[in-house]
Amino acid sequence: MTAPLAEVAASNASLRAFLHGLPGVDRVGAEARAAMLGTRSIKTTAKKHAIDLAIRMLDLTTLEGADTPGKVRAMCAKAVRPDPSDPDAPSVAAVCVYPDLVPVAVAALQGTGVKVASVATAFPSGRSSLNVKVAETEYAVAAGASEVDMVIDRGAFLAGDYLKVYEEIAAVKAACAGRAHLKVILETGELATYDNVRRASWLAMLAGADFIKTSTGKVSPAATPAVTLIMLEAVRGYLKATGRRVGVKPAGGIRTTKDAIKYLVLVNETAGPDWLDPEWFRLGASSLLNDLLMQRQKLATGRYAGPDYFTLD
Ligand SMILES: O=C[C@H](O)COP(=O)(O)O
Known about the structure:
Structural class: alpha/beta
Order of helices and strands: HHHHEHEHEHEHHEHEHEHEH
CATH class: Alpha Beta
Strand order of the largest sheet: 7-6-5-4-3-2-1-8
Number of strands: 8
Strand content: 5-15%
CATH topology: TIM Barrel
Oligomer: single chain
Number of helices: 13
Bound molecules: glyceraldehyde-3-phosphate
């Protein structure tokens, strides 16, 4: 980190000065660029590659109060071998579950290479004490989660208490103890402005985020191309300023292959092709995988399998 950036978190005033000194987002320009990139068509040969890449980048997610060990085990089986009729179909990157289901997912995925991500820090609201948030993170990591998806304290952020948000992220990062990657969920649907999305992205990265993630999937709007564009610009700028690469994860409401491919185009054109890797880009989704598999099979055979061919997402 350059010297001035290292000093940014010395106080709330210095954080505020830095974050409010970032260039303002041109809302109309960002939305127009995201929309324009969304209309790019790609060749059929590239489409097969894009679908496989999207599967490899997928954080297959279930975050429901009604989740059961059986549901998580079934999801893990699907994560490893999404299409039982095609051994060449790639596995997803990770499954994402609530902390108490981490042991179930870890047992089911042992030796497969599919990672286990746990939400933490009083997901989705983030309303609890720091002690509880840190304890929940420690619990998930001790249970074997190799990725932690935390939420920021949006109340503190919107009240201008940037230092509180920074210190919380840093404490959760410390609780990951070098054993888990930290994804920081900004919950962009609650941040009110694109300028705030840019500020929250930088704040999370300064505090140690390995990934910045758009949304919990519990708030509308969730991921949008324009918000993701702003976050991709932020990670590109942060790499330039510090030499450290941070990943990006749009999540929530991504349900179709068409949408997934739009995000891949956005990554390629905004952050650059170095981010086109599951190490640096993920798609968080509970019900995208079946559409990717159906489109994949359509490309291979020329026809769609019936909608009930694949097990339910
Ligand atoms: O992190 C992922 C999201 O919670 C999934 O949201 P979704 O159910 O809208 O796909």
